[in-house]
């Protein structure tokens, strides 16, 4: 199967070479890989240039955006610019972070999944991060059927059906909800162990703490589901402040009448899906 990769990269000098090398070791190679140099002020661009001389599938796109490292809008705006530089002759498209190391057969297995089951719209493995003992431990605080935003692969049909990726916090949740709205399945493979070189959120701007609640508002969760989801998140993170930040972000977005990320019909589907999942856990 033919696939393309887009890698948004902002000041990734410490990790980018490892990521690109792991892609170039794949048993199934991409037909095109766009690395979007998003306003980097370190040696990121030089690394891209060096790899471009080694492999013709690698393409560099320079873009300028905010210097603030915020989750959601910055990375997806960069991804979307990279995607626009590609044609539509692909079977699946990959959004890949610039700080991960993939197992060598990663995309061979992803292609096998998409080819074997056309109902699968989004596929991926699991993140492992280095622990204090120097070993690689699973870091997947979400449900097992969730693919982390660091390495999401979308079938072409699914990507088109959901209208691409939303440049907002929560993009890697709303994409899966919309995929299910359009009757696609999410597939995760626990044998695909991806090494994440930088712990999630370590570089995020302090203003990002309110964006999760804003995203829940944008996905039309409603107050009660947001309350439950925020309690669950705070409990998993063992951070009471996470609950307060989420609810404040939600209420502030509601007061400011921020734009929704989904339509009314999509929102109703999302709420019904969330309530069904809550009932399954309770009963």
From TrEMBL:
Domain of life: Bacteria
Protein name per Swiss-Prot or TrEMBL: Glycosyltransferase family 2 protein
Protein species of origin: Meishania litoralis
């Amino acid at each position: 199967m033919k696939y393309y990769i887009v890698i948004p990269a902002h000041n990734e000098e410490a990790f980018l070479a490892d990521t690109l090398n792991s892609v170039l070791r794949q048993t199934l190679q991409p037909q095109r890989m766009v690395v979007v140099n998003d306003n980097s002020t370190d040696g990121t661009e030089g690394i891209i240039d060096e790899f471009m001389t080694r492999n013709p599938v690698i393409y560099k796109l320079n873009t300028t955006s905010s210097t603030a490292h915020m989750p959601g809008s910055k990375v997806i705006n960069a991804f979307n610019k990279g995607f626009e530089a590609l044609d539509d002759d692909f079977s699946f498209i990959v959004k890949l972070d610039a700080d991960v190391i993939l197992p060598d057969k990663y995309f061979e297995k992803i292609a096998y999944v998409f080819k074997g089951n056309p109902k699968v719209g989004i596929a991926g493995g699991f993140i492992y991060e280095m622990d204090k003992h120097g070993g690689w431990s699973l870091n997947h605080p979400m449900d097992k059927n969730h693919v982390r935003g660091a390495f999401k692969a979308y079938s072409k049909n699914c990507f088109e059906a959901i209208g691409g990726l939303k440049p907002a916090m929560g993009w890697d949740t709303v994409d899966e909800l919309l995929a299910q709205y359009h009757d696609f399945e999410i597939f995760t493979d626990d044998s695909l162990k991806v090494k994440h070189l930088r712990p999630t959120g370590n570089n995020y701007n302090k203003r990002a703490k309110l964006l999760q609640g804003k995203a829940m508002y944008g996905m039309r969760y409603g107050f009660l589901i947001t309350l439950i989801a925020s309690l669950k998140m705070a409990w998993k993170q063992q951070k009471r402040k996470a609950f307060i930040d989420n609810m404040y972000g939600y209420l502030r977005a509601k007061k400011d009448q921020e734009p929704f990320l989904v339509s009314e019909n999509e929102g109703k589907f999302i709420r019904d899906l969330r309530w069904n999942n809550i009932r399954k856990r309770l009963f």
